[in-house]
Amino acid sequence: MGFDSSSLKSSKTMENNSVVGKKSKKDKANSPVVHLRVQLDMCSKRGDVMGAIQLYDKAIKEGITMGQYHYAVLLYLCSSAAMGIVQPAKSGSGNRPVLNNGKLVDFDNSLANGSTKPYYLEDDEIWVSEDVKKHALVKGFEIYETMCSNNVPMNEATLTSVARMAMSMGDGDMAFDMVKQMKPLGINPRLRSYGPALSVFCSTGDVNKAFEVEKHMLEHGVQPEEPELEALLRVSVEAGKGDKVYYLLHKLRTSVRKISPSTADIIVRWFESKAASRVGKRRIDQKLIKEAIENAGGGWHGQGWLGKGKWSISYTVVGDDALCKCCGDKLALIDLDPIETEKFAESVASIAIKREKNFSFQKFQKWLDYYGPFEAVVDAANVGLFSQKRFMPSKVNAVVNAIRQKLPSRRWPLIVLHNKRITGRKMDEPVKKALIEKWKNADALYSTPTGSNDDWYWLYAAIKFKCLIVTNDEMRDHTFQLLGNEFFPKWKERHQVHFSFSNTSPVFYMPPPCSVVIQESEKGHWHIPIASELDYDSERTWLCIRRANSHAVKEDSVAITEDSQSLNRNKEHTKSTTQTEVNSNFLPLNNGNYDKPQKLAEEMYKNITSISFASVSSDQHTVLSEIETAEMLGNCVIDFQI
Ligand SMILES: [Zn+2]
After folding, report:
1. What's the rounded Cα separation, in Å, for the pair 580 and 299?
2. How far is the CA of 303 from the centre of ligand 1 (A)?
3. Is there a single domain that holds both residue 468 and residue 601?
4. How remote is the CA of residue 255 from the centroid of ligand 1, in Å?
5. What is catalysed by this protein (predicted)?
6. Which helix (H) or strand (E) holds 445?
């Protein structure tokens, strides 16, 4: 985390007014308070924590009254050093001090005694020695105490710095307390404020506290992103918490959609675990599941784990027919429904109307009503600037002609272009003018006015007409962030056409045949897309995860009754609350002859219970290993619930 001065602007002004406001400009520049701030800023830029501490000691000795800004710089430097890495302020500010590249960074372990630079360090980061770490931590807390006793107001940056110092000592409770202090002080916690507490609880395996942090985040309007969800997933998998893993897969599905390779590794570890083979409903009401999938808009039912037994995990691809090349399941295609589309179009229009002057957006809406509908929209600036800085109408022309051939009606697409591209001096060449004239005559060109943001125009038109938008703009900048996460990612995936050029002919990358998002099937199987560099990678890798035994999922009509019998006998046998259930999914139950398998199951059940309960009083570890042996012998999973 670089030092983020933006959150300190208000305090800067406050301090100027209260301490030096009445003095002349010259006095102000020479005042010890301002001088100290300049010097601290220089330490921050150099990442010089020891220099900053010396300045602090000197200021205390000389009785200089420091403000929030001074303390914030000092605490930032001390907390960075306490964690082992100081990043000079000039290199910009990341939001995530703890969770780097999707990996939970354990500063203590990785930096304590190794001699190689950890992979996540950037060139300008300074790795401090053990002595400096210890000293910075002690001084950091001293500075925090002074700040408290002098009643200097806290802000998000100072409290987060203290939380980072707590993290460096492995004190998750203290790190969490720092975030909890924010709201009562009128401070809004940020995503980075939660990093220290979450990091400690996740690395110490404290699932409950890690999820307390997550709950606090949500209650304060902070949405965890993939690194935070990955950390929560890791701790849940390690603890074998099936319900938490299920919950997190849902969170990843809605907020991340396709996951990073490191998150995929954790998911694979989960499905390979014993805990994963034990979770799940054996009796499934298919009608209920189907309804749930429909209500969820496809690709998800949310009814919990289905089936039972070991999982089979494969890395695979999905064909152009949306069929999984591994299991043959058809993957869902999830688009906005008509009502959602209308709501989404309205919200885009209302933002655009507020931002565009002189009713220009309303004029555009009227124009669309008159000249529409269109089957495709072309973001002409993006196309015309493809792979070079100069706007090339010939590229737009090539794309427009080629996309027309793909449309059922062969109608012209709508070409949205800012008028500066049309009236610019470079557009005087006759060939370019002729192209513009051609589009105008076809009623296909809309030129957005001076001062407008053409993004709103092509986006709105494509949503309104539920049609394709040709652009390589990934729509990630602040304009699109205003649209939120509810509709936009779904819509974008189904409607965006990427393009490139092969020689001079355009090549189109149409929307993928199925939705590239974590999918849960009605059988309880999973298809999980892994993120790649290109958003429109046709050879995308998917995880296909099914129960190894296809008989694991049975409808009510085929459900067998031996489970309940086993449970009853089990209770009589042990006279305790311990329940042992033998899962006999491995048996061929669909052959119409139930007698033989049932006898087999009873035999096996007897053997297993005699092994496990004989040793239950002696040693817990022995029980576990006995059960594992029994599982190996029986090639099945014993569900052991306490
Ligand atoms: Zn599959």
Report:
1. 34
2. 20
3. no
4. 22
5. Endonucleolytic cleavage of RNA, removing 5'-extranucleotides from tRNA precursor
6. strand 445-448
Rounded distance from Cα 539 to ligand 1 centre (Å): 15
- Residue 521 CA to ligand 1 centre (angstroms): 10
Cβ–Cβ < 8 Å for 246, 280 = no
Give the range among 32-36, 158-162, 169-173, 567-571 with minimum mean pLDDT: 567-571
Cα–Cα distance, 487 to 481 (Å, whole number): 12
The per-residue pLDDT of the chain, averaged, comes to 78
Q: Is residue 538 part of a domain?
A: no
Q: Which domain holds residue 420?
A: 338-509
Considering only CA atoms, which of 352, 379, 347 is closest in space to residue 484? 347
Examine the pLDDT at 392 and tell me if it is beyond 60.
Answer: yes
- pLDDT tier at 634, thresholds 50, 70, 90: low
Q: Convert the pLDDT of each residue in 310-369 to its tens digit.
A: 999 999 999 989 999 999 999 999 888 888 888 899 989 988 888 888 888 999 999 999
| 290 alpha carbon – ligand 1 mean position (Å) | 18
Q: Is the CA virtual torsion 18, 22, 26, 32 positive or negative?
A: negative
Q: Are residues 495 and 564 in the same domain?
A: no
For residue 270, the CA-to-ligand 1 centroid distance in Å is: 17
pLDDT of res. 552: 40
- Return the bridge partners of 498, or none: 509
| Shared-domain flag, residues 487 and 393 | yes
- Given this model, what pLDDT does residue 382 score? 94
Q: Give the helix, strand, coil percentages of the chain, each rounded to 5.
A: 55, 10, 35
Which tokens is 400 given? Answer: 């427009």
CA distance 68 to 70: 6
Please name the residues in contact with 535: beta carbons below 8 A apart, sequence gap of 6 or more: 474, 498
C-alpha 610: how far from chain center: 48
Cα separations in angstroms, 346 against 203, 349, 361, 365, 377? 45, 5, 12, 11, 18
Ligand 1 centroid from CA 528, angstroms: 9
| Spacing, Cα 312 to ligand 1 middle (Å) | 10
Residue 70 CB partners (closer than 8 Å, separation 6+): 36, 37, 40, 56, 59
Same domain? 166 vs 76: yes
- Residue 282 Cα to ligand 1 middle (Å): 20
**What are the backbone angles phi and psi of residue 417, rounded to the nearest 5°?**
-145, 135
Say which residue the tokens 């001079």 belong to. Answer: 504
